[in-house]
Amino acid sequence: MIYLVYAHPYPSQSRANRILLDALRDLPGLEICSLYDRYPDFDIDIAAEQAALGRAGLVVWMHPVYWYSTPGLLKHWFDKVLSYGWAYGDGAAALQGKDCLWVASTGGAAETYSVAGIHERPFVDFARPIEETARFCRMNWLEPCVLHGAHDIDDAALAGHASHLRARLQSWLDLNVGTGTTATI
Ligand SMILES: Cc1cc2nc3c(=O)[nH]c(=O)nc-3n(C[C@H](O)[C@H](O)[C@H](O)COP(=O)(O)O)c2cc1C
User: CATH code for 2-176?
Assistant: First the structure.
Protein backbone atom coordinates (compact mmCIF):
# COMPACT_ATOMS: atom_id res chain seq x y z
CA MET A 1 0.00 0.00 0.00
CA ILE A 2 0.92 3.65 -0.15
CA TYR A 3 1.46 5.56 3.08
CA LEU A 4 1.07 9.29 2.56
CA VAL A 5 2.39 11.47 5.35
CA TYR A 6 0.76 14.88 4.99
CA ALA A 7 2.18 17.84 6.86
CA HIS A 8 0.17 21.02 6.48
CA PRO A 9 -0.01 23.08 9.68
CA TYR A 10 -3.38 24.55 8.67
CA PRO A 11 -5.12 21.93 6.52
CA SER A 12 -8.38 23.88 6.40
CA GLN A 13 -6.59 26.97 5.05
CA SER A 14 -4.73 25.12 2.32
CA ARG A 15 -5.71 25.63 -1.31
CA ALA A 16 -2.99 23.87 -3.30
CA ASN A 17 -2.27 20.87 -1.10
CA ARG A 18 -5.94 20.38 -0.25
CA ILE A 19 -6.80 20.07 -3.93
CA LEU A 20 -3.90 17.68 -4.52
CA LEU A 21 -4.88 15.56 -1.54
CA ASP A 22 -8.56 15.51 -2.46
CA ALA A 23 -7.59 14.18 -5.89
CA LEU A 24 -5.95 11.17 -4.25
CA ARG A 25 -8.30 10.24 -1.43
CA ASP A 26 -10.22 7.46 -3.19
CA LEU A 27 -7.18 5.64 -4.55
CA PRO A 28 -7.34 2.04 -3.39
CA GLY A 29 -4.54 1.07 -1.05
CA LEU A 30 -3.78 4.64 -0.04
CA GLU A 31 -3.49 5.44 3.65
CA ILE A 32 -3.23 9.14 4.55
CA CYS A 33 -1.92 10.47 7.84
CA SER A 34 -2.48 14.20 8.28
CA LEU A 35 0.17 14.83 10.90
CA TYR A 36 -1.18 18.11 12.26
CA ASP A 37 -4.66 16.59 12.64
CA ARG A 38 -3.43 13.38 14.22
CA TYR A 39 -0.67 14.82 16.42
CA PRO A 40 -1.62 18.43 17.28
CA ASP A 41 0.49 18.21 20.44
CA PHE A 42 3.49 16.74 18.50
CA ASP A 43 3.18 13.52 20.55
CA ILE A 44 3.79 11.12 17.68
CA ASP A 45 2.78 7.47 18.07
CA ILE A 46 6.09 6.05 16.88
CA ALA A 47 4.97 2.41 16.91
CA ALA A 48 1.87 3.21 14.85
CA GLU A 49 3.89 5.21 12.34
CA GLN A 50 6.51 2.51 11.99
CA ALA A 51 3.79 -0.11 11.55
CA ALA A 52 2.20 1.98 8.78
CA LEU A 53 5.57 2.36 7.09
CA GLY A 54 6.11 -1.37 7.41
CA ARG A 55 2.89 -1.99 5.47
CA ALA A 56 3.83 0.45 2.71
CA GLY A 57 5.71 -0.15 -0.50
CA LEU A 58 5.58 3.54 -1.38
CA VAL A 59 6.02 6.30 1.19
CA VAL A 60 4.86 9.81 0.21
CA TRP A 61 5.96 12.92 2.07
CA MET A 62 3.66 15.77 1.13
CA HIS A 63 3.77 19.34 2.41
CA PRO A 64 4.06 23.02 1.58
CA VAL A 65 7.67 24.21 1.65
CA TYR A 66 8.30 26.38 4.70
CA TRP A 67 11.61 28.21 4.91
CA TYR A 68 13.16 25.95 2.27
CA SER A 69 12.28 22.88 4.28
CA THR A 70 9.45 20.89 5.80
CA PRO A 71 6.93 22.23 8.32
CA GLY A 72 8.13 21.53 11.85
CA LEU A 73 5.98 18.50 12.57
CA LEU A 74 7.29 16.56 9.59
CA LYS A 75 10.84 17.26 10.73
CA HIS A 76 9.82 16.03 14.19
CA TRP A 77 8.27 12.94 12.56
CA PHE A 78 11.64 12.26 10.85
CA ASP A 79 13.42 12.68 14.18
CA LYS A 80 11.14 10.31 16.08
CA VAL A 81 10.00 7.72 13.54
CA LEU A 82 13.18 7.19 11.51
CA SER A 83 15.00 5.81 14.51
CA TYR A 84 18.41 4.26 14.89
CA GLY A 85 18.34 0.49 14.65
CA TRP A 86 15.04 0.59 12.78
CA ALA A 87 15.42 2.98 9.86
CA TYR A 88 19.21 3.28 9.84
CA GLY A 89 22.27 1.89 11.60
CA ASP A 90 23.77 -1.55 11.90
CA GLY A 91 21.45 -4.14 10.44
CA ALA A 92 18.52 -1.73 10.19
CA ALA A 93 16.51 -2.41 7.08
CA ALA A 94 12.88 -1.56 7.88
CA LEU A 95 12.63 0.89 4.98
CA GLN A 96 15.15 -0.68 2.63
CA GLY A 97 13.89 -0.87 -0.94
CA LYS A 98 10.67 1.05 -0.33
CA ASP A 99 9.93 3.82 -2.79
CA CYS A 100 9.81 7.40 -1.52
CA LEU A 101 7.99 10.20 -3.33
CA TRP A 102 8.35 13.80 -2.19
CA VAL A 103 5.36 16.00 -3.02
CA ALA A 104 6.04 19.65 -2.25
CA SER A 105 4.51 23.02 -3.05
CA THR A 106 6.23 26.38 -3.06
CA GLY A 107 4.96 29.93 -3.06
CA GLY A 108 7.91 30.89 -5.25
CA ALA A 109 7.51 30.51 -9.00
CA ALA A 110 9.79 28.05 -10.80
CA GLU A 111 12.02 30.81 -12.20
CA THR A 112 12.68 32.22 -8.73
CA TYR A 113 14.58 29.01 -7.98
CA SER A 114 17.65 29.70 -10.10
CA VAL A 115 21.03 31.39 -9.74
CA ALA A 116 19.51 34.59 -11.13
CA GLY A 117 16.29 34.27 -9.13
CA ILE A 118 15.41 35.57 -5.69
CA HIS A 119 16.17 32.22 -4.06
CA GLU A 120 19.61 32.12 -5.74
CA ARG A 121 19.68 28.35 -6.25
CA PRO A 122 17.89 25.70 -8.24
CA PHE A 123 15.13 24.08 -6.22
CA VAL A 124 16.90 20.73 -6.33
CA ASP A 125 19.49 22.17 -3.91
CA PHE A 126 16.80 22.53 -1.27
CA ALA A 127 15.59 18.99 -1.88
CA ARG A 128 18.93 17.48 -0.87
CA PRO A 129 18.29 17.06 2.88
CA ILE A 130 14.96 15.36 2.19
CA GLU A 131 16.46 13.18 -0.51
CA GLU A 132 19.38 12.14 1.68
CA THR A 133 17.02 11.36 4.55
CA ALA A 134 15.29 8.86 2.31
CA ARG A 135 18.52 7.49 0.89
CA PHE A 136 20.12 7.17 4.35
CA CYS A 137 17.17 4.93 5.24
CA ARG A 138 17.93 2.98 2.05
CA MET A 139 14.72 4.01 0.36
CA ASN A 140 14.45 4.41 -3.38
CA TRP A 141 14.13 8.17 -4.12
CA LEU A 142 11.66 8.82 -6.93
CA GLU A 143 11.52 11.92 -9.10
CA PRO A 144 9.85 14.49 -6.81
CA CYS A 145 6.50 16.02 -7.66
CA VAL A 146 6.88 19.76 -7.04
CA LEU A 147 4.27 22.45 -7.54
CA HIS A 148 5.81 25.92 -7.89
CA GLY A 149 3.91 29.18 -7.71
CA ALA A 150 1.21 27.64 -5.53
CA HIS A 151 -0.41 31.00 -4.76
CA ASP A 152 -0.72 32.12 -8.35
CA ILE A 153 -1.51 28.91 -10.18
CA ASP A 154 -4.97 28.99 -11.75
CA ASP A 155 -7.61 26.38 -11.03
CA ALA A 156 -7.16 24.55 -14.34
CA ALA A 157 -3.39 24.23 -13.99
CA LEU A 158 -3.74 23.11 -10.38
CA ALA A 159 -6.28 20.49 -11.43
CA GLY A 160 -3.83 19.34 -14.12
CA HIS A 161 -1.06 18.99 -11.56
CA ALA A 162 -3.42 17.03 -9.29
CA SER A 163 -4.29 14.69 -12.18
CA HIS A 164 -0.62 14.15 -12.91
CA LEU A 165 0.09 13.29 -9.28
CA ARG A 166 -2.87 10.92 -9.13
CA ALA A 167 -1.71 9.22 -12.33
CA ARG A 168 1.74 8.66 -10.84
CA LEU A 169 0.30 6.99 -7.76
CA GLN A 170 -2.14 4.97 -9.85
CA SER A 171 0.77 3.77 -12.03
CA TRP A 172 2.66 2.72 -8.94
CA LEU A 173 -0.38 0.76 -7.73
CA ASP A 174 -0.89 -0.80 -11.15
CA LEU A 175 2.74 -1.91 -11.27
CA ASN A 176 3.03 -3.13 -7.71
CA VAL A 177 -0.25 -4.37 -6.28
CA GLY A 178 -0.44 -8.11 -6.34
CA THR A 179 2.86 -8.58 -8.16
CA GLY A 180 4.92 -9.40 -5.08
CA THR A 181 7.75 -7.30 -6.50
CA THR A 182 8.44 -3.58 -6.58
CA ALA A 183 8.57 -1.51 -9.75
CA THR A 184 9.09 2.24 -9.74
CA ILE A 185 7.16 5.04 -11.42
C1 LIG B 1 5.97 30.04 7.30
C2 LIG B 1 6.01 29.93 5.81
C3 LIG B 1 7.21 29.74 5.16
C4 LIG B 1 7.26 29.63 3.77
N5 LIG B 1 8.46 29.41 3.17
C6 LIG B 1 8.52 29.30 1.81
C7 LIG B 1 9.77 29.05 1.16
O8 LIG B 1 10.82 28.90 1.78
N9 LIG B 1 9.77 28.99 -0.19
C10 LIG B 1 8.63 29.15 -0.94
O11 LIG B 1 8.72 29.09 -2.16
N12 LIG B 1 7.43 29.34 -0.34
C13 LIG B 1 7.35 29.42 1.02
N14 LIG B 1 6.15 29.59 1.63
C15 LIG B 1 4.91 29.55 0.82
C16 LIG B 1 4.24 28.17 0.91
O17 LIG B 1 5.08 27.16 0.38
C18 LIG B 1 2.90 28.22 0.19
O19 LIG B 1 2.06 29.09 0.93
C20 LIG B 1 2.27 26.85 0.06
O21 LIG B 1 3.04 26.00 -0.76
C22 LIG B 1 0.87 26.96 -0.51
O23 LIG B 1 0.20 25.72 -0.39
P24 LIG B 1 -1.22 25.61 0.32
O25 LIG B 1 -2.20 26.37 -0.53
O26 LIG B 1 -1.51 24.15 0.38
O27 LIG B 1 -1.10 26.22 1.71
C28 LIG B 1 6.06 29.73 3.02
C29 LIG B 1 4.85 29.93 3.67
C30 LIG B 1 4.83 30.05 5.05
C31 LIG B 1 3.49 30.27 5.74
Answer: 3.40.50.360
